[in-house]
Amino acid sequence: MQEIQIERTKNPKQKPTDQSKLGFGKIFTDHMYIMPYNKEQGWHDPKIVPYQPITLEPSAMVFHYGQEMFEGLKAYKAADGRVLLFRPDKNIARANRSNDRLCIPEIPEDDFLNALKTLVSVDKDWIPTQPGTSLYIRPFVIATDPFLGVRPSDTYLFIIILSPSGAYYESGLDPVKIWIEDDYVRAVRGGIGEAKTGGNYVASLAAQMKAHDEGYSQVLWLDGVERKYIEEVGAMNIFFKINGKVVTPKLNGSILPGVTRASCIDLCKHWGMEVEERRISVDELVEAARTGALEECWGSGTAAVISPVGTLRYENEVMEIGGGGIGPVSQKLYDTVTGIQTGKVNDEFGWTVEVQ
Ligand SMILES: *Cc1c(COP(=O)(O)O)cnc(C)c1O
């Protein structure tokens, strides 16, 4: 494992005083991690330096052909003062699967974990403490060759930045309204849907704007070929409870394999519930909503952890689920996952990693 050189800031910034106004992704801590890659040295000379702008040539490949990978995870401060990461090994493994798909060289797992732990430790006084708050961690890689030809870059930067973030739900869990998109698509099998990369997000913006205009907060995507099978929400995976069974779309190559998704599946099985990972058609969903078999629906992702869905709309069908309220499985998953993340609930799965 490579040693990280640390240069601490001489001008620490003012930390936010009102944790209820943090929001998401607007404030950055005092430091960042940066490690370059080139063909001769591989990933080398990792550093933690004061948070600062980076200089790139306008011809840097990332600006033109989108060769970039990103991740998202959180650090939490437990009541006893311990600093905890949630399943960082899963994010690291996924980052390298994204890297493979995007022709970016893999990052050694031990260097990646050491980077996360060391950076969070250096800026641990930035971790907010109020319920629901956390320190959001954004690792990413960009292609930096100054070149306009189309090929994988020979040079990269791996950077990690940190952002204290507020409670996703200011006043407890709040059911969201979701728009099932039948025109635009996000990803197709064989494409880059299962990689965490900016290209998937830019592809989703037009539908997101359309959904917002209609009064819906997020888009639920259908498969890119037949526009018939449920895939996932913008930045969340999706779960349904139909006739007592927990059902979620099977990972098929165009769905992002969420860490929160995997944790929901593990917990539901642990609680003795039947969990099915399979194809779910939108017709099955509409039918289940009409007959009352659709008992619950929720999204899962690092940002909100669990997001209960109160309303789904597909074409002219508006489906209200569980009276538009929060279902018991959603609530139990939210309480358990956030409880483990913050050290309040016994971590019997060994999911948390302590930062010293
Ligand atoms: C990150 C992401 C998710 C959720 O993954 P988590 O690991 O649970 O945060 C779901 N869908 C997309 C498209 C994503 O980018």
Automatic annotation (TrEMBL):
It is an enzyme of class 2 (transferase). It catalyses: L-leucine + 2-oxoglutarate = 4-methyl-2-oxopentanoate + L-glutamate; L-valine + 2-oxoglutarate = 3-methyl-2-oxobutanoate + L-glutamate; L-isoleucine + 2-oxoglutarate = (S)-3-methyl-2-oxopentanoate + L-glutamate. The modification N6-(pyridoxal phosphate)lysine is found at residue 196. CDD domains: BCAT_beta_family (cd01557). The keyword Glycosyltransferase does not apply. Pathway: Amino-acid biosynthesis; L-leucine biosynthesis; L-leucine from 3-methyl-2-oxobutanoate: step 4/4; Amino-acid biosynthesis; L-valine biosynthesis; L-valine from pyruvate: step 4/4; Amino-acid biosynthesis; L-isoleucine biosynthesis; L-isoleucine from 2-oxobutanoate: step 4/4. Keywords: Amino-acid biosynthesis, Aminotransferase, Branched-chain amino acid biosynthesis, Pyridoxal phosphate, Transferase. The keyword Metal-binding does not apply. InterPro entries: Aminotrans_IV, Aminotrans_IV_CS, Aminotransferase-like, B_amino_transII, BCAT-like_C, BCAT-like_N, BCAT_family. Residues 1-18 have a biased composition (Basic and acidic residues). Its EC number is 2.6.1.42. Its cofactor is pyridoxal 5'-phosphate. GO terms for molecular function: branched-chain-amino-acid transaminase activity. GO terms for biological process: amino acid biosynthetic process; branched-chain amino acid biosynthetic process. Residues 1-21 are annotated as: Disordered. Signal peptide: none annotated. SUPFAM superfamilies: D-aminoacid aminotransferase-like PLP-dependent enzymes. PANTHER family: BRANCHED-CHAIN-AMINO-ACID AMINOTRANSFERASE (PTHR11825:SF44), SUBGROUP IIII AMINOTRANSFERASE (PTHR11825). Belongs to the class-IV pyridoxal-phosphate-dependent aminotransferase family. This is Branched-chain-amino-acid aminotransferase. It comes from Candidatus Acutalibacter pullistercoris. The lineage of its organism: Bacteria, Bacillati, Bacillota, Clostridia, Eubacteriales.
